[in-house]
Each structure stands twice: as C-alpha cells, then as structure tokens.
Amino acid sequence: MISIIVPTYNEESNIEQCLQSLSKQTIPRSEYEIIVVDGNSKDRTREIAEQYADMVFIQTSKKVGGARNDGAIASHGDIIATTDADCIIPPDWIARIMAGFSDPAVVQLYGLVEPIEPGIRHKISLALANTFSRLGYYTHTLYYTLGCNTAFRREAFFEAGMYRTIDAGDDLEIARRMREIGRVKLDGKLRVSFSMRRYVQFGTLKSLYEWLYITIKGGDDEKYQYSKREYK
C-alpha cells in the first residue's frame, strides 16, 4: 500500500484535475490510497475531493507541513507520497515511486517539475530549478526536494520527526534529517506538472525572494506570509 497525501486550501478550481490524474495510474486503484487534508476551505474543495479520495478531513496541525503530517498519521501505506492540489500527475508516477523504493537503503525519493502553463518563460524557470536540484544532489551539498513530488519510507518518516510546521524551507529541512537515517534519492524521470500561478500573480523574482528570505530566517517570518495565499 502507498498513501498519497494532498494538502488543500480553497482549491475548487484545481483539485479535480489533480485527483483525476491520481485516479488514472498504471497500477490498480486498490494498491494505493488518496488522502486529502484540507485547511478549512471556504469553497467546494472538500465536496469535490470526496468524489475521488479515500479520506477527506480538515487539518488540525499548522500550515502545509502540518497538513502533510496529519495525512501521514491517518494513512495506512508503507510508503507515503505527497503532492500539491494544483499539480497534474503522470500515469506512471506511483509505479515509479514504488520502483524507487526497491532499494532498501532509500528512505526518501524525489523528482523534478515541469510547468502546466504554456510559455517559454515558465519552461526556462523550471529548467533552471531542475538544474539547481540536480547540482545539489550530485554534489551532495543540497537536497532540493519538493512537497509536490516526494515520497518517504513510512518508518523513516516518523523516525525523522515528520515535517516541521513552517512557512517555507520545510522540504529542504526534512531531507537533511532523512539523510541521517538512510539514502535520499533523486529520480530525474519522476516528474509532475506544476502550476506557475504563484509566479504569474506575484512575480517570479518576488516569489523566489520571499521563499529564500523566509528559508534563511528559519522558515517563519512576520514580514511575509507564504502559506494560504489567495489566488485569482
């Protein structure tokens, strides 16, 4: 069994395409569960999610990391995978994750991203991000994992202490702790389609600056609010 955790907040315009893609995987639906952990949305997010997910409930822990933790605690899988509500998942995603954990030394597996929205600017932005991720991995200096495309061996995830409930940088931080337990592996062919809406609405440079600023400050800062953004 593999458990897929999807945090949500006011995602009625995106959640259906995400869950539809998760429901159309190359492995039988009985071999994985979909868990939607909602931040008390004010729209139809939970109503839509209930048509596809095995569990839908309101989170009790703080922020996106807390939602992922709540989902993991409620899950039944030996492998816990996470993605985001505004992503579209390729049909072989779960199968690739399962294959990646055939090596017993692997405790965390992560992949790369490509843009949902058209345009060369978005492709260049994510190509640079993917290059940064590869450089960090192969030089063993930085494991740039993303919550939209990562998976954990269950026992190791709980042993490491799960996600920190911070605004930004939680993906980097948990990878550091997972490395103390076992191997953190990048699979360059493990990809999801990622929405660029944050960068479209708030600007690429501004969004990256805010993420970097909060991460350097330890994950939280009163100056910027990274969680529960309202999108047009």
Task: Characterize the overall form.
Answer: globular
Distance between the termini: 37 Å
Q: How many beta-strand segments? A: 7
H/E topology pattern: EHEHEHEHEHEHHEHH
Low-confidence stretches are: none
Summed over residues and divided by their number, the pLDDT gives a mean of: 88
Structural class: alpha/beta
Order of strands in the sheet with most strands: 3-2-1-4-6-5-7
Tell me about this structure:
This protein has nine helices and seven strands. By secondary structure, the chain is of the alpha/beta class. The protein has a seven-stranded mixed beta sheet, with helices on both faces. The longest helix is centred in the middle third of the chain and has 19 residues, at 120-138. The model has no long low-confidence stretch (mean pLDDT 88).
Topology:
Blueprint: E1 2-8, H1 15-23, E2 32-38, H2 45-49, E3 55-58, H3 63-74, E4 79-82, H4 93-100, E5 106-115, H5 120-138, E6 150-153, H6 154-160, H7 170-179, E7 183-194, H8 197-202, H9 204-216
Parallel strand pairs: 1-2, 1-4, 2-3, 5-7
Antiparallel strand pairs: 4-6, 5-6
Gist?
The chain is an alpha/beta fold. It contains nine helices and seven strands; from the N terminus they run E-H-E-H-E-H-E-H-E-H-E-H-H-E-H-H.
Short descriptors:
single chain; 232 residues; alpha/beta; seven-stranded mixed beta sheet; 9 helices
